[in-house]
Automatic annotation (TrEMBL):
Entry GO terms, CC: chromosome, telomeric region
Record organism: Byssochlamys spectabilis
InterPro entries, per database record: Kinase-like_dom_sf, Prot_kinase_dom, Ser-Thr/Tyr_kinase_cat_dom, Ser/Thr_Kinases-Pseudokinases, Tyr_kinase_AS
Primary localisation category: nucleus
Pfam families to which the protein is assigned, alphabetical: PK_Tyr_Ser-Thr
GO function terms (MF aspect): ATP binding; protein serine/threonine kinase activity
Record's catalysed reaction(s): L-seryl-[protein] + ATP = O-phospho-L-seryl-[protein] + ADP + H(+); L-threonyl-[protein] + ATP = O-phospho-L-threonyl-[protein] + ADP + H(+)
Compartmental location: Chromosome, Telomere
Domain Protein kinase: 101-348
Name assigned to this protein: EKC/KEOPS complex subunit BUD32
Protein role: Component of the EKC/KEOPS complex that is required for the formation of a threonylcarbamoyl group on adenosine at position 37 (t(6)A37) in tRNAs that read codons beginning with adenine. The complex is probably involved in the transfer of the threonylcarbamoyl moiety of threonylcarbamoyl-AMP (TC-AMP) to the N6 group of A37. BUD32 has ATPase activity in the context of the EKC/KEOPS complex and likely plays a supporting role to the catalytic subunit KAE1. The EKC/KEOPS complex also promotes both telomere uncapping and telomere elongation.
Keywords: Chromosome, Kinase, Telomere, Transferase
EC number(s) from the headed UniProt entry: 2.7.11.1
SUPFAM superfamilies in the record: Protein kinase-like (PK-like) (SSF56112)
Length: 348
């Protein structure tokens, strides 16, 4: 009887871990290397991965990297305590805490990976650890393997960040650092100073990047301005393939509402047309500096798309191309060629 009860209790515990997912996570941005000043800055991490200051908390303890046994219950919140490898003393994890030893400057904390700038200047993506939910941690590592596979499939290409190293054991991906950050932030900060020629170039380069993916039967599944990066010459590169569909495989990402075609069904294998719809919304953002229906509630945007109602494009540059993308009447090659023609005409 006892072995049966133990087995049932183990099964129930595993199911609980699978079903329990925290709404948010917290992170300590840093821990001073001096044991006297261990008052790390606490921050909440929302779904966007942004850091928001939330206050100070006192901690004192002896060094420890992780608990020896997996936790038995899932906490309401997870707190990540980031420490440098040089730190002498840092607190052992209490319930709900995870110690993360940083490799460099943290640039972003996404849904799957931590992005850091290494002392070498390169960027490393590390799957987010979560000892409280091994299946979730396994998913993060799976997404990193998918992303690495895409980089290996493509090889060196001007529309992709350069792959420096892939560590199969740790599932860490090292890439070149792109100085001008993501397209969304750059346009928000410099909208008034961006020339039409540069906007056309970015739109063409985005279409070129999609062509590379689609030719390899890769569907990105999460097109948005934050997933395009800019190098020192302001040339565009597509990134973040962890949620992609490879050769018909199930994706782990879904497009944001304003980049998602009407009738999108998570249970249906994605197709290239899904990315093309997102490309239309991306070009709209590049030209206007705003998302489609930016001031409209997300639920209402979904209903408008379903009713075949899209933002007015009468005064938007490349409006015809955008509308054709939204109706999925073109492919990425046609979009690229059309934008190339416009680019040449502007240079005359």
């Amino acid at each position: 009887m006892f072995p049966l009860w133990s087995w049932l209790r183990s099964i129930c515990s595993n199911i609980y871990h699978l079903l329990s997912t925290p709404n948010r996570a917290s992170i300590f941005l840093s821990l001073p290397s001096s044991p006297i000043e261990q008052q790390p800055l606490k921050a909440d991490i929302g779904h966007s991965g942004n850091f928001v200051k939330a206050g100070l908390e006192n901690t004192t303890a002896t060094p420890s990297l992780e608990t020896s046994q997996p936790p038995k219950t899932y906490p309401d919140d997870i707190t990540y305590i980031c420490v440098s490898a040089e730190s002498i003393n840092y607190p052992p994890p209490r319930h709900g805490e995870v110690i993360y030893v940083t490799k460099g400057e943290i640039l972003a904390w996404g849904g799957t990976a931590i992005v850091e700038r290494l002392p070498s200047g390169a960027v490393m993506k590390t799957p987010i650890p979560n000892p409280y939910c091994p299946p979730e941690e396994k998913d993060h590592r799976r997404n990193m393997r998918v992303e690495a596979r895409v980089y290996v499939m493509i090889g060196d290409h001007p529309r992709m960040p350069r792959l420096i190293c892939w560590d199969e054991e740790t599932c860490c991906l090292t890439l070149e650092y792109l100085e001008n950050g993501n397209l969304g932030d750059y346009i928000r900060q410099n909208h008034q100073n961006i020339t039409l020629q540069l906007r056309i170039r970015w739109s063409r380069q985005a279409a070129e990047a999609l062509t590379v993916l689609h030719n390899l039967n890769v569907i990105h599944c999460d097109l948005s301005p934050r997933n395009f990066l800019l190098d020192s010459h302001l040339d565009l590169k597509i990134a973040d393939f962890g949620g992609a569909s490879l050769c018909g495989s199930d994706p782990s990402a879904t497009p944001a509402i304003r980049f998602r075609p009407p009738g999108y069904d998570w249970n249906v294998p994605p197709v290239s047309g899904d990315d093309i719809f997102g490309l239309g919304s991306l070009i709209y953002f590049i030209m206007t500096g705003s998302y489609p229906y930016e001031e409209v509630a997300s639920g209402e945007v979904d209903r408008l798309y379903e009713a075949d109602k899209f933002p007015d494009l009468s005064s938007v540059i490349c409006g015809n191309i955008i509308m054709q993308c939204w109706h999925r009447q073109v492919d990425s090659v046609q979009v690229h060629d059309c934008l190339r023609t416009i680019e040449r005409e502007l240079s005359l």
